[in-house]
Amino acid sequence: MNQSLFFTLDTHYQDTAGLIAVHVIPHAQGLALIDCGPGVTLPVVLRALAARGYTPAHVTDVLLTHIHLDHAGAAGWWAQQGARIHVHPVGAPHLLNPEKLLASAQRLYGDAMDQLWGAFLPAPSERVLIHSDDEVFAIGGQEFRALYTPGHAEHHIAYLWQAVCFSGDVGGVRAGGLNHVRLPTPPPEVHFEKWRASIARLRAADFQFIAPTHFGVYAKDAHFDLLERSLDAIVKWLETEMPGEPSQEIFRRDFGALLEALARADGYTPEQMKIVEAAGGATVMSADGIYRYWKKYRAA
Ligand SMILES: [Zn+2]
Fold first, then answer.
1. What is the C-alpha to C-alpha distance for residues 230 and 187, in angstroms, rounded to an integer?
2. How many angstroms separate the alpha carbon of residue 9 from the centre of ligand 1?
3. ∠ CA(50), CA(51), CA(57), 5° rounding?
4. pLDDT per residue over 95-140, tens digit each?
5. How far is it, in rounded angstroms, from Cα 172 to Cα 185?
6. In percent, how much of the chain has pLDDT > 90?
7. Are the beta carbons of 71 and 281 closer than 8 angstroms?
8. What CATH fold (topology level) applies to the domain 3-228?
9. How far is the CA of 53 from the centre of ligand 1 (A)?
């Protein structure tokens, strides 16, 4: 792949390299960002752009894969600077009026909310652009395709550009360039059957490289193999764990042990496992997302 065609900024989220990426595509009129990181990492992103000779005015477009805070937190700020924000129609109202989104995040993160994520400003409506499924659109002479890809979140879009798929979270979490892919499964919209269908759809799509927001660029097929292996392992584990009707506490504990075993099986050192843990979000949150999925869709 011609790496000079796009580049990746590291937001150094929580002073850690390789957790949250902002992928950047230069085009005829400036720059398009794929996801923009949370509000709290905006100064790092601006410094990284400045180091390459860019000002905020160069950023014409921000393509959001979904509106979780680690991907979209800074979008309102960019919109207020004049950038167009691309988003799934279900995500758009939350960009215009973030109150509801922030209230539900506040319930998850409590007092740590501001320190963890920073400001999430509202976007002016005239700057928010929605895409239909499979829509092809152009930015500064570069062609993109938006693919609806639920499973991690209902309103998730993967963007295809040249030989690359910017997969947000539906392509899983892969930290440190290692051969292990973790499923980010926070509540409330995790749905494994939809996730599998999205993976199948992406596998069938025409691209060679996958660029998850967490983190890097990888060859397509081998990456999806790793992702599906993790998905299969979790579903198989659920089918043995859930008939025992574990409490949420026991479920969290056992799920943590499963994730650790999966990472160890892929050869992770304890040090590397800390990185994966941080990139994949808290184990407790991932456990709760899966527990909710089971109770809602599988228990009946
Ligand atoms: Zn997410």
1. 18
2. 18
3. 20
4. 999 999 999 888 888 888 888 999 999 999 999 999 999 999 999 9
5. 9
6. 78
7. no
8. Metallo-beta-lactamase; Chain A (3.60.15)
9. 30
